[in-house]
Amino acid sequence: MTTNGMLLDADKLAGLVHGGVDMVAFSLAGCSETNDAVRKGTRLAQVLETIRQLNRIKENEGSTRPAIHIAYMLLRSALDEIGQLPSLLAGLGVSQVVVSTLDLVPIPALNQEALIPSSQDEYAGLCARLDRLVVSGRQSGLEIRCQTVAFPFGDDASVPAEPDMAAFLPVHRPACTENVEWAAFISAGGDVSPCVYTNLPVTSPSGITGKMGRPYQPLIFGNIRERSLEDIWKSKAYRAFRRSHHSGHLEAPCRGCLKTMVMSRTF
After folding, report:
1. What is the mean pLDDT of residues 53-68?
2. From start to end of the chain, where are the E strands?
3. Residue 116 pLDDT level (bands cut at 50, 70, 90)
4. Are 92 and 48 in contact (CB under 8 A)?
5. Would you call 27 helix, strand, or coil by DSSP?
6. 120 CB-near residues (< 8 Å, 6+ apart)
7. Is the whole model's pTM more than 0.70, yes or no?
8. Local structure of 79: helix, strand or coil
9. How far from the centroid of its chain's Cα atoms is residue 236's Cα?
10. Cα(32)–Cα(37) distance, rounded to whole angstroms?
11. Residue 257: what pLDDT?
């Protein structure tokens, strides 16, 4: 599960431990008060204290679950403080951090926050910064995985080599980071879609335009109130969709989605 952590009191945290939840990811978007300004209604200090409390409960119960992850949204305005992340999380029992960038820009005001490289030099600088973050995290016993949109966009994207990073195995071929060939998203209303990005709760989808300039398109294969999830998953249309990802011949709305142009950098 993923949570902002603000409503997890002691009883709810104990419930997570007793219920056998495998992993809890706490969402952050900054290493200072920046997080509180971006994620309205949250407080970084409270999230960190909630993580400490969860660790205490796990220790008292003799449990190793749930594992604690951090889902970190890296915005351009908070780029300079990303290096503080390993020290911020030191001693909190965090097993993994996944750093992502803003891939869907729903309103023009957020364009400036999207770390979408516009040149090879900008991409190289961002990669170098994130490589240093991964190294720093590893030295602190923290696994950090950074996901960034590749430059140039598309299947021919390449990552600049850095001789002093010979120990890295950081680069994987761009593929959908939402794991749509094996996972599905079910909305609160029961609609089944490949991922959350194809099933946003918006009243006017045409008002959202992605970074690639294409209007937002929902993609729904059925509703679990009308058919079983298994039937929907095995439907002809859904199987054809998954084959398109397996072959790389993507159709709308996935064609041009930045989630299919992400490079993952880690050890």
Report:
1. 97
2. 2-3, 23-28, 67-74, 94-101, 143-149, 185-186, 191-193, 222-223, 262-265
3. confident
4. yes
5. strand
6. 151, 152, 160
7. yes
8. helix
9. 29
10. 9
11. 80
Kindly provide the b/e burial profile for residues 63-101, where b requires at least 16 CB atoms within 10 angstroms of the residue's own CB.
eeebebbbbbbbbbebeeebeebbebbeeeebebbbbbb
CB 217 within 8 A of CB 205: yes
Which stretch of 6-20, 78-92, 252-266 has the lowest confidence by average pLDDT?
252-266
Angle at which helices 10-18 and 44-61 cross, to 10°: 50
Please give the single-letter amino acid code of residue 228. Answer: S
CB 26 within 8 A of CB 47: yes
Inter-CA distances, 199 with 178, 195, 227, 242, 251, Å: 13, 7, 18, 16, 16
Only one residue has tokens 């002809």, namely 236
Convert the pLDDT of each residue in 221-244 to its tens digit. 999 999 999 999 999 999 999 999
